[in-house]
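Students often ask what a 'structure token' actually looks like in practice. Rather than answer in the abstract, let us consider Desiccation-related protein PCC13-62, a protein of 335 residues. Its sequence is given first.
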Amino acid sequence: MASSSPHAAAPFLLLLLLQLCSWGVALPDQFVDPTCPQQRLPAALATVLPNYGGPVCKPPAPHVPVAVFPYDVDPVQFALNLEYNEAEFFLHGAYGQGLDQIAPGMAMGGPPPEFALQARSWPHQGYQAHGRRDSSAADRPQRRQLRQGVMDQAFGYRLNPPFDPYANSLNFLLACYVIPYLGINGYVGTNPMIDGYKTKELVAGLLGVEAGQDAVFRALLFERRGEAVPPYNITVAEFTDRVSALRNRLGRCGVKDEGLTVPRELGAEGAICTNVLSADRDSLSYARTPAQLLGILYLTSDERKPGGFYPEGANGKIARSFLGKPLGANESPTN
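Now compare that with the structural description of the same chain:
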């Protein structure tokens, strides 16, 4: 007999999320990358699946044979705040349009982003937005795309002219440095909070993509670390160091963020002073809690004081609990 408790719905909703993640979202024809070859089965795959017969091996049995626990839902739902932000930012950078134009059914509610600066449409450069449709998702929160205040706050004074993330490719790479790294912190911090094997699979998959994105951004910026960013005459390395220092201050939990240059004692194994990846002395990724992430995203250093990228606060049970605000229409109370 089915339980009437709201807890019973949570595993089903998260399983639906996982199923929908496998579908992806097809871009309209006008946004298809013209450099892609015509659809065909790759030769390497054809040798493994000659008749599309499905996989020839099975994954090992999970250590904990429960796909989703009810308490898994809230941490994953919290992560959607960052995913919506990233999806809008990358889509506007690549296509000059956001979710409402390219995949209008994905957000399932919530306002479009406010832009402090007008995004310019660039040719598609392969920036991947890995948000997916999800009937258990929190409402899309009201948010602002990269604001002038982020860089001003990082440097401690107002940059002149205002920093425009869409002005050129270097500015865009520096803007990409600001948010995606927080996804890595969040997923590393989320992993110990969840137990369902399907939930862990989802978080691991998202973490892998976030880490790949951040590695590409940092590697490209590392190659230009000594280059001055016009018209400020400030090097790329100093931009990244200042942004990382700001995130550390706002996160209120010591060093969990590193720019492209660090004191030798903070470098990998205490042996180097430059680093492509941000990691601790054991070369392991840093973790941050939801409260620490919200303090950074709000630019207030306080998870109870919205602002910054989320002027009305982030959504989901975890974020709303800090604000003492009710859940949105598409937010499911779970615990």
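One point worth highlighting: Confidence is low (pLDDT under 50) at residues 1-7, 9-13, 15-20, 116-138. Ask yourself how you might have guessed this from the sequence alone, and why that guess would often be unreliable.
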